[in-house]
Amino acid sequence: MKNDQDVLALDDARKVLSRLRQGEPFREHVEERLRLVLPASAVFALVALACAAATAVFFADLSSWLALPGFLLAPAVLVGSLYVQGLVFFLWLESRALAFALGQAPRRGMGELPRVPWRLAAAVLFVPLLLLLRVWPVLAIVLIAAAVLVPLLYVRLDRAPRKSRLTRSRAAV
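Request: output the structure for the sequence above.
Response:
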């Protein structure tokens, strides 16, 4: 029952952060691709900001009594949606880095799909995106399209991966 106990996926987050800090092949993979990782992170930040703002505005528009709860929920939505998007993205990057380190191409060009904390994603990302659609439909469509395009563009622009040290050391053996 790991899924019931780890709704926030904190264990996954700790592990991926640890491997990013200490795991040389994964860290190298990310460092070599910062020109792709940073714009992806910026898109995730924009989505998170828009979700937080939409949450506050949606509740304030419903009633003046709901304005305060909406404004109190906004920071949780901001942090939570950024956390979910970042976690899923870095877990996905890690699977790609592992495939490249083992000298393989990622499955179907994209790589393994990571485990998603669905309950948390629903609460802090999907519901706020629906609120964003209600409050600012054009912005919502643009940001959803951008977020969906992030991994597709990442794969497209990451056509020629460099060999990691793990692969080079294996080749020397």
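The CA atoms of residues 95 and 112 lie 6 Å apart.
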